[in-house]
Amino acid sequence: MNSFHTIKWLDGGVVSMIDQRVLPHEIRYNEYTDPVAVAGAIKDMVIRGAPAIGAAAAFGLALVPWHDKTGNLDQVFEQLGKAAQVLRESRPTAVNLFWAIERMMALVEGKDKYATVKELKELLLQEAIMVAEEDVEINKSIARNAQALIPDNAVIFHHCNTGSLATVDYGTALGTIRFAHEQGKKIFVFVDETRPRLQGGRLTAWELQQYGVPFKVVADSTSGHYMRTQKVDLCVVGTDRTAANGDVANKIGTYNLAVVAHENKVPFYVAVPKSTIDMNTPSGDLIKIEERPAKEVTHVGTWQITPDGTQVGNPAFDVTPAKYVSALITEDGIVYPPYEENLAKLFQVSAGD
Ligand code: MRU
Known about the structure:
By secondary structure, the chain is of the alpha/beta class. It has two domains: 7-139, translation initiation factor eif-2b, domain 1 (Four Helix Bundle (Hemerythrin (Met), subunit A)); 142-352, Rossmann fold (3-Layer(aba) Sandwich), CATH 3.40.50. It has helices spanning 35-43, 50-66, 73-88, 95-106, 117-146, 173-182, 199-211, 223-229, 254-263, 295-298, 339-352; strands at 7-10, 14-18, 29-32, 154-158, 187-192, 215-218, 234-237, 241-243, 248-251, 268-271, 277-278, 299-300, 303-304, 317-320, 327-330, 333-335. α7 links the parallel β5 (187-192) and β6.
């Protein structure tokens, strides 16, 4: 159990989130009762990480009937449509956001089935809680499945934050590391600091410290040096959207890490819940990459590090071509290349379950 929660529904229709912008120096929980404010929290990265923002969107939609004052179903449906749109516009790359919104809004279709706002309110909340609870179970399954790929005494490179903070709990890639450690394996982690938002240096380091996993924070540009000069057994990262051909969109810098891993014959694994695999997107080239504000690059905290007027490029994600991905670790098992074929099989099998 963590000593913190990433996101939680509180009695009375309140969504509580730990404010990831101020970690690790301050533990602050923000409370939300309005879906537009939840969308703002996603955009400003109070909450971040693909599965976590999916859960935030689901709880954000559940807030609509909770705080309705009209008692009129038609009006609530209209408000839900508007809230879904605002949430969709909060961040473009992580498919979990859209997946969770569509899952929630599917309940709103066929609106004749509800007699009262109260019925709708209960159903939406139940669904949002299910999205959150399933996420934790899925992460634990991913972690279990990953153990076949993580030897004892493994030295692992990790990028961004993919732990409890990036999910509802436990994490995807970081969950595989945490589980290995909990199983008694001796693990050492190189934590990419992850410029410019420093999810590695601030968040992954904070989590690993709590789990007692030995680690070292390193600048993103060090991976080549370490892989060429020291024993590194594997890389494991998360993803915001994986295309049907196995191309992986993830935090900016992931592609560099994958190429360096390939050059040094270090296996490169991606921990991915099936909700992050977008079978409607055939290739990574079609994934929209979020461009974030220049200030994330020109400043570290409040300190400006570049000359006034400096031009900045700040893509939040990149795409790692499938050829660099040694395996995708899902809750239903490990998927190896050829991904186009094997991901199609993975989803066919689930559809036939
Ligand atoms: O911009 P962020 O911090 O939301 O980016 C997060 C990542 O890139 C993670 O690696 C990804 O969401 C997978 S987390 C389980």
